[in-house]
Amino acid sequence: IGNKIIDFDTIDSTNSYAKEIAKEVLHGTVIISEEQTGGRGRMGRSWTSPKSEGIWMSIILKPDIPPMEGMKMTQIAAASTCWAIRTVTGLEAYIKWPNDIVIDGKKVCGILTEMAGELNKIDYLIVGIGVNVNIEKFPVEFRDIATSLVIEKGEKVDRRTIVIELLQQFEKLYMDYINCGTLEKSLAIIRNYSAVLGKSIRILKGNQELRAEVIAINEEGLLRVRLEDGKEELLISGEVSIRGS
Ligand code: BTN
Q: Is there an atom of ligand 1 within 6 Å of 98 CB?
């Protein structure tokens, strides 16, 4: 992972570019840009990616696994990013399942995993990671929900060091998954630094809002919740928001 890194000064979206070249490049190729003019988030949202103030990157993966397993790459990315932020900055970063990293309840990183292939085979996976590193100030409407490493730490943070730690950790956790077929090592991090485990959360499903207690993150990395009526359910994905935040 990261043996080949393609870096840009500016680009629309590293995920979109990764998709264009994915077929022609090797597994593990990384695209990184100083700035994105059309950064994409989940659910069709846009992702603000100001110049030199964050890590805007995409990892191209070509694992020989069933498409159903593809979303596990998001878990590996969340675990490695959370771990790298903690190691480099000492900040108390937590993973808000399935793909956000938060500090102090505010989002500092988002992950967008996209997949191409057929029913029984993955052609490639793009894992897009956006980390707000040195963004000093957010627009008023984001101040309660977004933060950056510089805001939390009170001093600038070196983006390079985080990228290196992140990719090294990603490689380790990815290889562990490929060799063992389980998410064991990633799950240890995900459970240890979970922002939702044991908490009361709101689940947004379409336009339905449910309240639930998170009781476990299972072996597959799925969230086991207990709904208000006492029924238990496994959440595969969907928008999860922690109550009170
Ligand atoms: C989200 O939380 O909605 C996911 C945000 C993902 C942002 C990253 S930045 C690098 C990569 N390229 C994109 O266009 N998006 C992802």
A: no
